């Protein structure tokens, strides 16, 4: 109930300050990327959004139009959530509030059997896995303050899309975390391409993810490429969309050659294919 009260009290201020006749109500599934364009009066600048305590950058499209990509985490509870939009006109700060109604993703489940030692980790391996988790989180917490991506996102490898995003996995009969990326089956050594322009912020060999590359596209957007045979870039490199960054492998905990492709947008784990379809 509380969230409804919050929305309606903000709506009152939206009515007195906003531009649109009524608040937008946007439906979005768990794990989706919402692409939102808003028109403003001339002279508006510094537009940003706030959604689930995350600051959402809006980018200028034309003199009066701004757009944003908003990520819905794959585990975000279904139901309405306010999206506050704030901007400046002269010295004045203005805002309005819209609603994003989160719909369940209807993800499947998958049972996998792996050697016992790859599922029940010994203390040394568990310590390694925890260190690696912390390392990758540090990378996610420092996205560049500059947008590097431009135009459409491309699918990084040609192959069979396995549709495993959001799957709840049973590993040797135990329920595990949701699968946070999409798997694309492809032959060993197929080239893996950067989905868009960005900076290589992580190259490493991880217990679960194997040889991995993470690209920071700037302002809170990352794409991840796991289970590579090898990476062909190093940390700090700037890459262009379509540039080769590695080769398909089956390193880490993988049952066969494939690319695990992931995306993170303002801390939300989203389906990378939703990036491809939402940015035209
Ligand atoms: Zn995967």
What are the defining features of this structure?
five-stranded mixed sheet, alpha+beta, Immunoglobulin-like, ten-stranded antiparallel sheet, 280 residues, Glucose Permease (Domain IIA)
Structure, explained:
With 280 residues, this protein is an alpha+beta fold. It folds into two domains: 2-103, Immunoglobulin-like, CATH 2.60.40.10; 109-278, Glucose Permease (Domain IIA) (Distorted Sandwich). The protein contains four helices and 21 strands. The protein has helices at 2-17, 116-119, 123-140, 272-278; strands at residues 25-29, 33-39, 44-51, 54-57, 59-60, 65-71, 79-89, 92-103, 109-112, 160-161, 168-171, 174-178, 181-185, 191-193, 198-206, 210-218, 221-231, 238-239, 244-248, 258-265, 268-270. Strands 10, 13, 14, 15, 16, 17, 18, 19, 20 and 21 form a ten-stranded antiparallel beta sheet that branches. A five-stranded mixed beta sheet has the order 1-8-7-3-4. Strands 2-6-5 form a three-stranded antiparallel beta sheet, covered by helices on one side. The radius of gyration is 20 Å and the shape is globular. It binds zinc ion. Zinc ion (ZN) is lined by residues 179, 181, 183, 260. Residues 179, 181, 183, 260 line the site of zinc ion (ZN).
